[in-house]
């Protein structure tokens, strides 16, 4: 499977032979489309048929999946993402389900899967380049792994920016921009204590 941000651009690149096979780096060529899928986003349900590609070298086929979709999930990232973010903030699955208009059992399964994988995500994040690894310790077991990753990403990114000798107001402005982009999705469920702690305007320099 190959995830792409711009479906049309990926389709043009595939037709021109500019996409490479993730298995052998061979040239990919168009190979029809997948069967129809019904997905649910904020605007309701829609039917899609992602493109398929075939490697001219190894013969393997790959689905070219838009980044907003998740393999094996009928809900888009725009629905699942806010649900997971709300879960990190301590909101119960029933309240999340009511807000997003998703069955409570479905939301519960998302949160359970995220919790099961959170510790592994902490370990991977601590071992790979990025902002969170600056703060996450590999020998520490976090009581709330998902929240630890999120907070470490924000603070680690701040430190990276400071190491580049950027002015403090520039860093704060960038953090505020990220916060404003994320807040519409999770602000409805954020407890006041956490929102104050994570908001750039309330963090100490």
Describe the 3D structure.
With 205 residues, this protein is of the alpha+beta class. It folds into two domains: 2-66, no CATH class; 77-200, no CATH class. Helix content is 48%, strand content 15%. The chain has helices at 7-15, 77-88, 93-100, 104-127, 145-163, 168-186, 192-198, and strands at residues 2-4, 28-33, 37-41, 44-48, 51-55, 61-66. A hairpin with a 2-residue loop joins β3 and β4 (44-48). α3 crosses α4, α4 crosses α5 (145-163) and α5 runs antiparallel to α6. Mean pLDDT is 77; it is low at 191-205.
The domain count comes to 2
Distance between the termini: 42 Å
Radius of gyration: 20 Å
Output the number of helix runs: 7
SS-derived structural category: alpha+beta
Task: Enumerate the strands of the largest sheet in spatial order, edge to edge or round the barrel.
Answer: 1-6-5-2
Oligomerization state: single chain
Strand content: 5-15%
Main beta-sheet strand count, sense and barrel state: 4 strands, mixed
Shape label: globular
Elements, N to C (H/E): EHEEEEEHHHHHH
- Ranges where pLDDT stays below 50 over 5 or more residues in a row are 191-205
Question: What would the average pLDDT be, to the nearest integer?
Answer: 77
In percent, how helical is the residue content? 40-55%
In short:
The protein is of the alpha+beta class and 205 residues long.
List the helices and strands and how they pair.
Blueprint: E1 2-4, H1 7-15, E2 28-33, E3 37-41, E4 44-48, E5 51-55, E6 61-66, H2 77-88, H3 93-100, H4 104-127, H5 145-163, H6 168-186, H7 192-198
Parallel strand pairs: 1-6
Antiparallel strand pairs: 2-5, 3-4, 5-6
Helix pairs in contact: 2-3, 2-4, 3-4, 4-5, 5-6
């Amino acid at each position: 499977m190959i995830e792409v941000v711009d479906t049309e651009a990926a389709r043009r690149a595939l037709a021109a032979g500019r996409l490479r096979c993730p298995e052998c780096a061979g040239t990919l060529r168009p190979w029809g489309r997948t069967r129809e899928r019904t997905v649910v986003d904020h605007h309701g349900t829609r039917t899609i048929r992602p493109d398929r590609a075939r490697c001219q070298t190894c013969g393997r086929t790959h689905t070219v999946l838009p980044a907003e979709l998740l393999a094996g999930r009928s809900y888009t990232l725009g629905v699942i993402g806010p649900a997971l973010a709300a879960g990190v903030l301590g909101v119960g699955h029933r309240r999340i389900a009511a807000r997003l208009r998703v069955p409570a059992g479905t939301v519960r399964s998302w949160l359970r899967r995220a919790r099961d994988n959170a510790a592994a995500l902490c370990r991977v994040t601590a071992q790979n380049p990025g902002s969170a690894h600056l703060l996450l310790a590999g020998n520490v077991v976090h009581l709330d792994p998902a929240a630890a990753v999120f907070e470490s990403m924000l603070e680690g990114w701040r430190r990276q920016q400071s190491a580049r000798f950027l002015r403090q107001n520039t860093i704060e402005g960038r953090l505020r921009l990220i916060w404003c982009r994320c807040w519409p999705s999770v602000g409805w469920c954020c407890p006041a204590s956490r929102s104050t702690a994570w908001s750039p305007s309330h963090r100490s320099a």
